[in-house]
Design a protein that fits this description.
Length: 31
């Protein structure tokens, strides 16, 4: 259960970073 929780957290962190990066590049394109 702990391993599953860690894996989920890792995936969530990756998604969050990807989302932030996407928003940042989108803003850059708009500028």
């Amino acid at each position: 259960m702990l391993a599953h929780s860690l894996l989920f957290g890792e995936l969530w962190l990756l998604l969050d970073i990807h989302h932030s990066f996407g928003c940042a590049s989108f803003s850059y394109v708009e500028l």
